Amino acid sequence: MLIPAAISLIISVLFLNLSPLGQGKFFIAHQSKPIDAGQVLGVSEKISEEKKSIEPNVNLNKTAAKMLVETKSLLSPRPGQPIRQPSSGAAGRPDRRREAIMVNEDFTAENGAILSASDNSLFFAKRPDQPWPIASITKLFTVYTFLDFNPGWEKSYEIKAADKREGGKIYLFTGDRVTVKDLFYFSLVGSDNTATAALVQATGLSEAEFVEKMNAKAKELGLKNTRLIDPIGLKDGNISTAREVAVFAKIILAKEDINRASLTKKYEFKTEQGRKKIIVSTNELLDDYPKDGISILGGKTGYLDSSGYCLVSQFKNYEGRTIVTVVLGADSDSSRFSLTRKLVDLYYQAQP
After folding, report:
1. 116, 121, 187, 191: which is the annotated catalytic residue?
2. ∠ at Cα 184 (182, 190), nearest 5°?
3. Which one from 126, 139, 213, 316 is the annotated catalytic residue?
4. Which residues cross the membrane (predicted)?
5. Is residue 4 a contact partner of residue 10, using CB atoms and an 8 Å limit?
6. Could you tell me the pTM of the whole model?
7. Distance, CA of 263 to CA of 320 (rounded, Å)
8. Cα–Cα distance between 49 and 217 in angstroms, integer?
């Protein structure tokens, strides 16, 4: 009699979703329906205390909870091991209904993702389809579009008053004559706003025309939740999602010119007038890798008051497994890097 009663109790608990969740652990959930924008994938982080708690003095409830956890462990993959699903649909686009995604209660940024580069599936996600300001990550879209209109790396450009943009340290001044290559590197290495504005002007397109081209490129790539209104990243209206930032970064970091610039720790040159200019990368992870057989393949930082601290990065381990990590809306400069390190460890330590 006890065994049927226990089984009945387990089934009841399963339907009531009374199983306690351990703080700081990772959980896997297999998606059975399309993901709505802004939905946290996997186990919700906001579980009411009523559902989490089990009366401490009721032994039957304790026993049922323990049995439920043990039963789930037999039916579910071990923590850290996602369910591998084949890609389907349009080229490289996975069936989102079949993704196995993990939610980490310790992931404190507003949005985040780990994208497996082999099939574009998400290994980890927190609000991956929530539109969010991407700040200077916008510059990745800018340089990608620029490559279609590059007037020549060695072409000379004179900085104009109209190129000046606020935000960050000023490196270039009106009258400085530099090459297009210098503008390109200053834009990606140090996220220099003036250099990015000048890079756009060097194409011969107006800023409005260039932004139109950027949005067309995003549309061509199937980025349905990405909207860009300026090429610098200074406006709140530059919007994307963690998923789409990851997919896009995977594509453009395969471009040799972009990849090389994003991996440059320090760039220095002299203007045509002989003034020495030095800019240091905003991505401190370049100093951390390679480490433990893992190499960084590039990335880009971003920050606005509205976006918080953001970072997209690509990594590869010694076996050739490549991922893209995205952190959007971290609360500090240091946390976007520490959270990225955790995502890297989460993925590569979970692999068999």
Report:
1. 191
2. 90
3. 139
4. none
5. no
6. 0.73
7. 18
8. 46
The tens place of each residue's pLDDT in the chain, 352 residues long, gives 444 444 444 434 333 333 333 333 333 333 333 333 333 333 222 323 333 322 333 333 333 333 333 333 333 333 333 323 333 333 345 445 445 455 556 799 999 999 999 999 999 999 999 999 999 999 999 999 999 999 999 999 999 999 999 876 788 999 999 999 999 999 999 999 999 999 999 999 999 999 999 999 999 999 999 999 999 999 999 999 999 999 999 999 999 999 999 999 999 999 999 999 999 999 999 999 999 999 999 999 999 999 999 999 999 999 999 999 999 999 999 999 999 999 999 999 887 6
Active site residue 139: yes
Q: Which fold has domain 132-156+204-350?
A: Beta-lactamase (3.40.710)
How many Å apart are CA 3 and CA 21, to the nearest integer? 25
CB atoms within 10 A of CB 4: 8
Residue ranges, comma separated, of all CATH 3.40.710.10 domains in the chain are 132-156+204-350
Query: Is 33 assigned a ligand-binding role in the annotation?
Result: no
Q: Does a cis peptide bond (omega within 30 degrees of 0) precede residue 290?
A: yes
Question: Would you call 206 a catalytic residue per the annotation?
Answer: no
Q: Is 12 assigned a catalytic role?
A: no
Catalytic residue among 116, 121, 126, 136: 136
Place of tokens 């946390």: 335
Helix ranges (H only) for the chain are 2-16, 49-52, 59-75, 138-146, 180-189, 193-202, 207-220, 242-252, 256-262, 333-350
